[in-house]
């Protein structure tokens, strides 16, 4: 239960960080590349 709560907290932090990162990269990349990068990032997070 404790581990689950800390994982939730990390997920919230990761989402906030990812949003900030996306808004920065949006000016540099097309939407397709950005989405592909996000999927890779989320995949790495899960493993």
Let me know the average pLDDT: 76
- Rg estimate, integer Å: 13 Å
SSE run: HH
Low-confidence stretches: none
Summarize the structure in words:
This protein has 47 residues and is mostly helical. The chain is built from 2 helices and no strands. The protein has helices at 2-25, 31-46. It is elongated and about 40 Å long.
Short description:
The protein has helices spanning 2-25, 31-46. The chain contains 2 helices and no strands.
What topology emerges from the helices and strands here?
Blueprint: H1 2-25, H2 31-46
List keywords for this structure.
47 residues, mainly alpha, 2 helices, elongated
